[in-house]
Write a sequence for this structure.
């Protein structure tokens, strides 16, 4: 499968713990996006990378959230001191510059107990 | 501020009936609008975009700037069309999508 992949697919954690998710984009895509989707809602934009540079962050991305894309390939999203309100599906997408279509991964479902 | 509204959470129709999934948006500039679809146990995928003016799987959508709408239509629904449909708006710089809350289409036999 040459599409966007995400790991893990499911994560259950206790409140206060840190979690890290990984996203591997389609290999030739230089743009990478993170979205969060809660039950009954559409995906909400969190942050966006062009190559290794993080160019935009949503106000949804509190200080407990950090994202990296160190070599312009895979990306990680870390949530520190998780809260129950962080429970959601975290989606990654990638695209090429100038191309509208974003290709989505399967998502990581986070449950904070 | 950008906003995408899909007023129907669930739309149920019988096979062969026409379908219209509503999408309204608010955006100060000239938007790029898209429909994404998510079939059961699959990932989000692009269905169509207004700039291409194409028909995919029998679906079409016309951008109406006067009514700020981008409704998705299909004249004869099929059971395999059952899925979640999301309308999305992309600002001019293509840096992100703003999604609506989605409409679940259920096509009954």
């Amino acid at each position: 499968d040459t599409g966007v992949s995400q790991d893990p697919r499911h994560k259950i954690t206790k409140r206060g713990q840190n979690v890290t998710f990984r996203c591997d984009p389609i290999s030739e895509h230089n743009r990478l996006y993170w979205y969060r989707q809660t039950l009954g809602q559409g995906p909400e934009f969190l942050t966006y990378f062009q190559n290794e540079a993080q160019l935009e962050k949503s106000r949804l991305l509190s200080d407990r959230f950090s994202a990296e894309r160190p070599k312009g390939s895979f990306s990680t999203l870390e949530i520190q001191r998780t809260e129950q309100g962080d429970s959601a599906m975290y989606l990654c997408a990638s695209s090429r510059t100038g191309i509208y279509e974003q290709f989505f991964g399967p998502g990581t479902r986070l449950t904070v107990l | 501020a950008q906003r995408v509204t899909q007023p129907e959470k669930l739309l149920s129709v019988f096979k062969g009936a026409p379908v219209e999934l509503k999408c309204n948006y608010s955006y100060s500039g000239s938007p790029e609008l898209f429909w994404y679809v998510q079939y059961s146990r699959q990932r989000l995928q692009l269905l169509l975009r207004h700039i291409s003016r194409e028909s995919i799987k029998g679906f079409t959508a016309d951008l109406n700037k006067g009514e700020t709408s981008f409704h998705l239509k299909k004249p004869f629904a099929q059971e395999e069309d059952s899925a979640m449909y999301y309308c999305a708006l992309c600002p001019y710089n293509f840096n992100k999508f703003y999604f609506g809350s989605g409409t679940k289409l259920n096509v009954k036999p």
